[in-house]
Amino acid sequence: MKFIIILIVFLSYASCSPAEKGGSSSGSGSEDAGDVIDLPSPDTDGGITINEALSGRRSVRSYSESDITMEELSQLLWSAQGITSPHGFR
Questions:
Q1: Residue 13 structural domain
Q2: What residues contact residue 24 under an 8 Å CB cut-off, 6+ apart?
Q3: How many domains does the chain have?
Protein backbone atom coordinates (compact mmCIF):
# COMPACT_ATOMS: atom_id res chain seq x y z
CA MET A 1 0.00 0.00 0.00
CA LYS A 2 2.83 2.37 0.87
CA PHE A 3 4.43 1.66 -2.52
CA ILE A 4 1.22 2.59 -4.36
CA ILE A 5 0.95 5.90 -2.49
CA ILE A 6 4.58 6.74 -3.27
CA LEU A 7 4.01 5.81 -6.91
CA ILE A 8 0.92 8.04 -7.13
CA VAL A 9 2.79 10.97 -5.57
CA PHE A 10 5.71 10.49 -7.95
CA LEU A 11 3.48 10.30 -11.03
CA SER A 12 1.51 13.35 -9.90
CA TYR A 13 4.72 15.33 -9.44
CA ALA A 14 6.10 14.16 -12.79
CA SER A 15 2.97 15.23 -14.63
CA CYS A 16 3.09 18.72 -13.08
CA SER A 17 6.73 19.48 -13.90
CA PRO A 18 7.34 21.99 -16.70
CA ALA A 19 8.10 20.79 -20.21
CA GLU A 20 11.72 20.71 -21.23
CA LYS A 21 13.17 23.67 -23.10
CA GLY A 22 13.87 23.70 -26.78
CA GLY A 23 10.64 22.62 -28.40
CA SER A 24 7.54 24.52 -29.27
CA SER A 25 4.31 22.73 -30.02
CA SER A 26 2.79 25.70 -31.84
CA GLY A 27 3.90 28.36 -34.26
CA SER A 28 6.84 28.38 -36.60
CA GLY A 29 9.40 28.18 -33.81
CA SER A 30 11.20 31.29 -35.11
CA GLU A 31 10.64 33.22 -31.88
CA ASP A 32 12.01 32.23 -28.50
CA ALA A 33 9.85 32.46 -25.41
CA GLY A 34 10.25 35.94 -24.01
CA ASP A 35 10.91 37.67 -27.34
CA VAL A 36 8.87 40.84 -27.74
CA ILE A 37 6.95 41.16 -30.99
CA ASP A 38 5.80 44.66 -31.92
CA LEU A 39 2.15 44.56 -33.00
CA PRO A 40 0.23 47.30 -34.81
CA SER A 41 -2.08 49.47 -32.71
CA PRO A 42 -5.65 48.12 -32.45
CA ASP A 43 -8.65 49.83 -34.00
CA THR A 44 -10.34 51.35 -30.95
CA ASP A 45 -13.09 53.08 -32.93
CA GLY A 46 -15.40 50.10 -33.33
CA GLY A 47 -18.19 52.13 -34.83
CA ILE A 48 -21.13 50.21 -33.29
CA THR A 49 -22.73 50.06 -29.88
CA ILE A 50 -22.42 47.06 -27.59
CA ASN A 51 -26.13 46.32 -28.14
CA GLU A 52 -25.64 46.21 -31.91
CA ALA A 53 -22.63 43.95 -31.52
CA LEU A 54 -24.47 41.56 -29.21
CA SER A 55 -27.61 41.40 -31.34
CA GLY A 56 -25.57 40.61 -34.44
CA ARG A 57 -23.40 38.00 -32.74
CA ARG A 58 -23.36 34.54 -34.29
CA SER A 59 -21.13 31.53 -33.70
CA VAL A 60 -20.27 30.77 -37.30
CA ARG A 61 -16.80 29.43 -37.90
CA SER A 62 -14.87 28.99 -41.08
CA TYR A 63 -11.21 28.12 -41.30
CA SER A 64 -8.65 28.75 -44.00
CA GLU A 65 -5.11 27.61 -44.65
CA SER A 66 -3.73 31.16 -44.55
CA ASP A 67 -2.18 32.69 -41.45
CA ILE A 68 -3.80 35.66 -39.75
CA THR A 69 -2.16 39.03 -40.31
CA MET A 70 -0.32 40.94 -37.60
CA GLU A 71 -3.14 43.52 -37.67
CA GLU A 72 -5.75 40.80 -37.05
CA LEU A 73 -3.65 39.31 -34.24
CA SER A 74 -3.18 42.74 -32.67
CA GLN A 75 -6.91 43.46 -32.76
CA LEU A 76 -7.79 40.01 -31.37
CA LEU A 77 -5.32 40.25 -28.48
CA TRP A 78 -6.38 43.80 -27.62
CA SER A 79 -10.05 42.84 -27.65
CA ALA A 80 -9.53 39.72 -25.55
CA GLN A 81 -7.39 41.24 -22.80
CA GLY A 82 -10.16 43.47 -21.50
CA ILE A 83 -8.34 46.75 -20.89
CA THR A 84 -9.97 49.18 -23.30
CA SER A 85 -9.13 52.49 -21.66
CA PRO A 86 -5.89 54.44 -22.17
CA HIS A 87 -5.71 54.64 -18.36
CA GLY A 88 -5.69 50.86 -17.97
CA PHE A 89 -9.35 50.51 -16.94
CA ARG A 90 -11.70 47.82 -18.22
A1: 1-81
A2: 33
A3: 1
